[in-house]
Design a protein that fits this description.
4 helices; 6 strands; Rossmann fold; 169 residues
């Protein structure tokens, strides 16, 4: 009998036309240059319904998105997706869409656990470039993704620290 290998989805969320709102997409494009076994990276953008088939095959999901949580631009947060709310301390319109989509999954599929890697935006104005602080945080975002995937796939199944406190850059 073979042990089930975990399938991880890393989804980049956001809008590339609104500067820092596209940080998740920029991150998955960088991650695609460093493929990891058992990990699918997907540029979901704002088309969350296109993510349904990815969710059906994933055991765990890491959503990368701009998240307003009151920190400094470029701060990085690792949150349980259930902690991201429209009226809560951490907000992300795209994460809310993914959580809603998960409730629409057909039987027998169950929604996999979702974690949000959020980056505090500086600008959500029209523009295709990331602001300075968010662009500078991108290497730390990639490092945090790699560390999180390692935690999820290690034999000890250690859990990454879920925190609203900004990760040091």
């Amino acid at each position: 009998m073979h042990a089930h290998k975990q399938s991880i989805l890393i989804a980049g969320l956001g809008n590339l036309l609104l500067s820092d709102d596209g940080v998740g997409i920029h991150a998955v494009h960088e991650l695609a240059k460093q493929p990891m076994i058992g990990v699918t990276t997907a540029d979901i953008g704002t088309a969350v319904f296109h993510a349904m088939h990815y969710l059906e095959h994933a055991d765990r999901v890491l959503l990368i998105d701009a998240v307003k949580a009151g920190g400094n631009p470029g701060d990085i947060y690792l949150l349980d997706a259930d902690d991201v709310r429209e009226d809560g301390p951490a907000t992300s319109i795209h994460t809310l869409g993914m959580r809603s989509l998960s409730r629409l999954m057909p039987a027998p599929h169950q929604c996999p656990p979702m974690t949000v890697l959020g980056v505090e935006p500086k600008s959500l104005e029209y523009g295709m470039k990331l602001s300075g602080p968010v662009k500078a945080a991108l290497p730390k975002v990639i490092e945090t993704v790699m560390r999180t995937v390692h935690c999820w796939t290690s034999p000890l199944q250690t859990k990454p620290t879920i925190t609203m406190e900004p990760a040091p850059c």
